């Protein structure tokens, strides 16, 4: 359950733009404003807020960069769009706040203390609670409860902050309502994606390939790809119809991205993707690869060691071979290709409505994914 | 940690109004709209949503009724205010959505499966997960994790829904911004109140009387009293200055209410307040009563059995006697009186700015609290 955190800036930020400095400035402005509103609350909460700010600052800003790059490209020819750059920057930063809220709640639900090898927000709070006796293995349950509760509350604070940004933007009310519709859609998809993820892991929901596919789209694709692209479209003054079409591109792009993530974790070289080899198999992650395999006669051999926390390298390699034999590896490649092709078709379909820079930019993003090896 | 759920309609709904029917209609409209937007998500999530709707329908609508009653009274003379009745109804229902979101997250954090003797949302989900083997004592940890995760996600959905209502109301943007400021203030206070509550219970925050008092105000008073009263003031077209004054009244009223709740649980007749006798002492709740006692020489005798899950009636009565001897009981009564007096002064101060019906209504609310015995 990694919410696309393995995205790298090279892979997804539109080429030719560097918005980092202004994104950081706007992020700092948001922090200052939130800190100020929380200044009366006593030292404990302010320390918690500072820990959250530190954690948030470590993000790679993939979503804000995608939003701003797309918006800039879409508005090279329109005056309306250019005038909306300040608003685009605010919404861009809000997508990062939303991402952080989702990550923290995800970590609460999964009981994770680390993200990409470093203590996450919850891990930091846990360590601060008792620095002398900090242990990430079997921490004091009361301390862990405190840290997780901090995670729920700080996540809520950032969900609220995201909504405040969308609700307050200086636009005519109909445009603001379109942004709020998009945020509503994004929240619903993402929450239900997480709901399916937890349900599949805990067997509250029967695992099958369609549910696994739906989960990937809802949990990651919508807020990571569809949200920034559609927000850019709204702010650039595109029609609702074109906004929807751009959204479809985002959904395909994001689904392809998430499926690739699963593919590379299972079949890629661990040295390249940077995760533990076989961690998805060890954790019993219900990917579409597993969803496919479940319906084949090889499943009875695979399930013996699937979701086995003690999985050895040899057993992992055996499962990998079985996943190739049963056709799941080929199916996964085909599905990724299908989504990338669908993307290209949707982009081509928009050629008459968008300027050629946007078309080039979107194609470049598909090509980046197509060539992704880690 | 009961978020004021012991409020009864008699105690707090402004007398002379019955808004229940229109509140239920608007609540149903909100449910339908949310259901429709979630209709594509598969049966498991829709079942979860229906469970949430059922739980939400059981509320006593104290906050919406207070908001609508106050708004109606404030607008008997103004055309603007009357025109805003539809908006007031939407915001009123949003306060109920917010209340539900807070209750569910509170129950997740406390690990509670019941509220007022009935299975709460989490308890319902847990029971649905495995109806044949349902046990509320030592439930299957994986099932409990599923139910709690549902709680986090459904809480988030209702937090988002609350913000959407505030962000979309059909008002001039400056009035909408005032409502959004109020929501921001409410969210921050309530989250920090819960943060302090968990911190005090788990000893992550040093218990003292000021923190306990702050916790009561932030966690309950703001969203239960200040929010409905200030929202009514904004919608009735009151100036920002008068809105702030009405907010101060709400904060005093809410703090008095919460302190009374703590007082009655500890010193009242269990038969009247309907809670287990001594449950606050058994659970180690850091009330202002305990905060006061901590600073006295009787504390060493009290703490022996404070926060003892096996507390007997005799031990409970001993603690109660010690709390009287050390002056905590008297202190508690004085503090409640102080807040009610402060309320009356603040109301009197507004006499020239508000019509006499509003003044009467606010005084009536103070009198109701003053005469409260359960």
- The helix count of chain A comes to 18
Query: Architecture of the largest domain in chain A in CATH?
Result: Orthogonal Bundle
| CATH homologous superfamily label of the largest domain in chain A | Farnesyl Diphosphate Synthase
Name the assembly state. Answer: homodimer
CATH class category of the largest domain in chain A: Mainly Alpha
Topology pattern of chain A, helix = H, strand = E: HHHHHHEEHHHHHHHHHHHH
Rg of chain A (CA only): 21 Å
Largest interface: A-B, 52 and 52 residues
Overall outline of chain A = flat
Question: What's the CATH topology label of the largest domain in chain A?
Answer: Farnesyl Diphosphate Synthase
**Share of helical residues of chain A:** over 70%
Largest sheet of chain A: 2 strands, antiparallel
The averaged pLDDT of chain A comes out at 90
Number of domains of chain A: 2
GO biological process, one term (chains A, B): isoprenoid biosynthetic process
Family (chains A, B): Belongs to the FPP/GGPP synthase family.
Cofactor (chains A, B): Mg(2+)
Organism (chains A, B): Corynebacterium vitaeruminis DSM 20294
């Amino acid at each position: 359950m990694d919410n696309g955190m393995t995205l790298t800036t090279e892979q997804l930020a539109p080429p030719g733009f560097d918005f980092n400095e202004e994104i950081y400035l706007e992020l700092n402005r948001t922090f200052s404003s939130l800190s100020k509103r929380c200044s009366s609350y006593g030292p404990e909460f302010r320390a918690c807020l500072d820990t959250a700010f530190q954690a948030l600052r470590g993000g790679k800003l993939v979503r804000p960069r995608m939003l701003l790059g797309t918006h800039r490209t879409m508005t090279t020819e329109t005056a309306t769009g250019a005038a909306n750059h300040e608003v685009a920057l605010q919404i861009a930063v809000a997508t990062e706040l939303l991402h952080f809220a989702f990550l923290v709640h995800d970590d609460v639900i999964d009981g994770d203390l680390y993200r990409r090898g470093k203590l996450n927000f919850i891990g930091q709070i846990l360590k601060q609670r008792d620095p002398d006796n900090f242990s990430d293995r079997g921490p004091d349950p009361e301390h862990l409860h405190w840290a997780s509760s901090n995670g729920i509350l700080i996540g809520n604070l950032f969900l609220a902050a995201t909504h405040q940004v969308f609700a307050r933007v200086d636009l005519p009310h109909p445009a603001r309502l379109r942004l709020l519709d998009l945020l509503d859609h994004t929240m619903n998809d993402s929450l239900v994606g997480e709901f399916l993820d937890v349900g599949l892991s805990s067997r509250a929901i029967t695992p099958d390939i369609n549910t696994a596919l739906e989960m990937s789209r809802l949990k990651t694709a919508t807020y990571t790809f569809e949200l920034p692209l559609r927000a850019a479209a709204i702010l650039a003054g595109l029609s609702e119809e074109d906004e929807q079409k751009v959204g479809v591109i985002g959904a395909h792009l994001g689904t392809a991205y998430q499926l690739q993530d699963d593919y590379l974790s299972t079949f890629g070289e661990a040295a390249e993707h940077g995760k533990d080899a076989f961690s998805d198999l060890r954790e019993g992650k219900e990917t579409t690869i597993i969803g496919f395999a479940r319906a084949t006669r090889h499943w009875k051999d695979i399930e013996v060691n699937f979701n086995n926390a003690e999985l050895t390298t040899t057993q992992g390699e055996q499962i990998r071979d079985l996943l190739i034999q049963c056709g799941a590896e080929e199916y996964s490649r085909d599905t990724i290709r299908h989504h990338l092709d669908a993307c290209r078709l949707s982009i081509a379909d928009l050629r008459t409505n968008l300027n050629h820079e946007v078309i080039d930019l979107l194609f470049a993003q598909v090509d980046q994914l197509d060539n992704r090896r880690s």
